[in-house]
Design brief:
Layout (H helix, E strand, L loop, with lengths): L7 H13 L4 H10 L2 H13 L1
């Protein structure tokens, strides 16, 4: 099953929930991982190298 492309706004929302103290760090890390943070960062890094 293919994952949808990472949604930067959704990833930022997860991060902001953690900053406000609404969500524990473990849950945020899980949400960021399943939300495609690695793929987003990898794509940005590859674009920067070009």
């Amino acid at each position: 099953m293919d994952r949808p492309a990472p949604d930067p706004r959704k990833l930022l929302d997860h991060w902001e929930e953690w900053e406000r103290g609404d969500t524990p760090p473990g849950r945020v890390m899980s949400d960021l991982k399943t939300g495609g943070l690695r793929e987003l960062l990898q794509g940005l890094a590859e674009n920067q190298e070009s």
